[in-house]
Amino acid sequence: MKNLVIVESPSKSKTIEKYLGSDYSVVSSKGHIRDLAIKGKDGLGVDVENGFAPTYEVSKDKQDIVKDLQERAKKADHVYLATDPDREGEAISWHLAQELNLPVADQDRVVFHEITHDAVLEAFNHPRTIDMDLVRSQETRRILDRIIGFKLSKLLHNKIKSKSAGRVQSVALKLIVEREKEIKKFQPVEFWTLDAVFAKNGHKFNASLAKINGEKAQLNNAADAQAAYEACQGAFTVSSVRESEHGRGAKPPFITSTLQQEASTKLGFSAKRTMSVAQRLYEGIDIGNGQEGLITYMRTDSTRLSDVYLKAAHGKIEEEFGKEYLGVQHQFKNDANAQDAHEAIRPTNLANDPEKIKSYLSNEQYRLYKLIYARALASQMAPARVLSMVVTLSQNGYDFTANGSRQIFDGYLRVYGEYDAGKDVLLPELKAPEQLKALELKQNQHFTEPPARYTEARLIKAMEEEGIGRPSTYAMIIDTIQARGYVTLKPASETTKTKVFFPSEQGIKTVDSLDQYFSSIINVKYTANMESDLDKIADGSADEEKTLQDFWEKFTPLLDEAYEKMPKEEAEKVGEKCPDCGGELVYRNGRFGKFISCSNFPKCRYTRQLDGKEKEKPVPTGKKCPDCGGELLKRKSRFGTYFLGCSNFPKCHYMETLEGERIISKRDRAKAAAKAGAEEAPAKKPAGKPAKKTAKKTAAKSAKKPAKKTRAAAAKTKAAKKAG
Length: 724
What we know:
There is one protein chain. With 724 residues, the chain is α+β, with helices and mostly antiparallel strands. It contains 20 helices and 28 strands. Helix 5 (132-160) runs parallel beside helix 17 and helix 6 packs across helix 14 (474-483).
């Protein structure tokens, strides 16, 4: 084997291997290969007293993969690390280098932002060293999340039975809970409007009362509305007609957050679904001539487009639509918090028109790709032009206004109109001082509305505007707070399909407890400032250890106070004794809602549903387990079906149907898949030590020390540069 290339995704490896040729073998790490160990003081995997030194260990489900990669790396002339082009990807490359004993100073890191022939080959022509500033930034984030997640989760579970807390997830939950409280406190205020219907030459149009004697009209009650109604019974005079033409510019190409928002509102996709489909489009799809990446990297906060794309886009626009549709070739201004590490999300090749390749895509892939393609192309097109008309009709000091608009040039809407087109509102030709009689004059009562609950799109927009987390984490954050039972996403009412977030009782309780004891760190401002600190570590202008120490000194006293003062919530008693052990029965919250269980859990596992139905107990069958010799028990699954499972579970995972057919668990399927992947590898020498021992040895040997050496080397390099 001459060259070994390691990527994150198996599907991506096929595309890249096609471009590189027979001298390269491309394999996948299947994401992160190791994480902070769950050992040491408080199980943090972080030595707080010694500079927050992390201890890493290979994940259990990745031990076979790492073992295989180590064998392949020994046989290769050169190993390239081609993980994703972001902080997580950089960290994965560093962890791979540690486990495969690759010198961090070697130029074996390859980065590309689109999986196309030219981009991949260009990247391999310019490999670089692993960016340790990016690695340290990711490491700091992981340590912070581990400390807060472990320590706060333990506290909240002990005190109020909440399942978890997190540096960013708790702030996102706080936004939802605070919005719900605003809605509950909201006091509607009554107001009225006076609306008229006019007609000219058979063309009806609407107008509304805007001013009274030159001041903004305010009709606070029925009496005000009636007085205005009685004063406007005569003919109206057209007092002014104003026409103006204005442009409506195209929106920037997508970044991660705007793609999630637009896919939510226009396609009905959840953030998680959007990112999953986008990942597949990025990694590559066979469109008739082998796999090809269809979009650039989808985790980005930059609206920048490459010069190559700009040139291609302007050529296509002029050729297909004409010169008048050409916009100014420019870059959109990035948000102040943007890292600008990658381009905006765009198609990799404009020749891959969505309609031409539709037959190769699933319905979801086609719809999302079409949206991305249209947005990126439209961003370089001329503005749409709209002619607006405002007509004022007056009587007795009461001014009514009618608004009309007409599109006179579609511009970028020629491409993006399916997602963003407005409707023309036409007014008849009117001139001052002609007079018109109102066909209808109507008083309408209204009440002010409370702030709207968050949809997925609105929550993502709020997090982005506040600088909470990073766009690449939004889908995971939303998924987590739902999985923990803190919020539900459901229609706001029976009359709408739009889903919004409602906090659960436990979600509100969690936020209230955090507000009482941790308001200085679990808030929007502190979380946003922490993201800024992580960015500074990534660009080499801040120190990892100092950032962690500053946080620790602020966090620890708050945690100590919370343990001392936060009252421990006792489980609500049912008022019945457990039929199995005589203990008190209590109400508990589970994954599928509230249920009744014994207060002596886990010694006693009696449970029943709120409707009185007890959970069925396993029934002995007398049959022996073919794997371990234990007894097979008849059990009921959470889906209501029956199966036979080994009495030695969880040590033995054997299951079969009532008819005797073996059931392969997810765990066993994953093992089989990993084994099959290892068997496909070239023949190799028998491994020496077991993967578990190798993982421990490597983690102990290289987790912290290589990082320190690398940091010291980096410091010397910086000093040398300054001196030079």
